Amino acid sequence: MTVKNSSAITLTILAAGCVNVAWADAIADAQIFPACGSTYGKKLESRVFTMPRIGVETVAEIGQTMIATYKTDVMAGTESYAFSLDQSVQLSGRSYGQDFTLTLFPLKVAMTPGAAYRAADYNFQYANDKEPRTGLGKPDVYLTMILPSQEVTVKVKIGLGQEIFPIGNAEILKTTQCTITGPESFQRELVYSGVVKGVVSVSYREFIGNMARPAFSKEFQFDLSEGNEIGFKGARFKIVKANNLGITYQMTKNLD
User: Fold this and answer.
1) What are the tens digits of pLDDT across the range 191-200?
2) Residue 92: which domain range?
3) Going by C-beta distance under 8 Å and a sequence separation of 6 or more, which residues neighbour residue 14?
């Protein structure tokens, strides 16, 4: 097979919002985790993702990635927590020389580390009160969660002071995983550039971290009259069909 190396370096930009259904399936098959937000946990592993699956007929439009290898860091993502009381709980304390009783009624709330949840349904009563306090006479009550123990505490604000009671532990509702692009992250991909008179153009690109490596980004051309199987940098793929709308192909080996 004749390979024609174009002297002009080609950087192909992926069209936003134009992911082919077949390529979306390839992404799902690769089990690529979403990018981390501003908050994430510890590093779990470094992992190499490859797309698409070997032997699966895949479709890519012009400007879309055909074959890709990603090395990235997988991080523990954000976690969501919840705390619930299935029945009323009575807490007793002493403030400013007076004994008091706080009754928390059943509740279920989402908890965020470091944030305070203001309780709405509770009774507060000093020992010498005939009835629970209401209005301005009723102190504010907050629930907070502490990590890593997930312990939930009740804070009763009385005047300038506060009384704190441990009340239980929150449960983890969901743990996610995400990826970050660190200085050692590496990405290589082949992008379909089009076909003219049976000659298919494919762009090769490399990235380290978030930075493209222009010196390694080139466009290569493959003449289909000499066969429909293409090899490049260890990758092997068979072209089923190629036109100005897209390319249908099967990968038999990914990039080395």
Assistant:
1) 999 999 999 9
2) 80-176
3) 63, 64, 65, 191
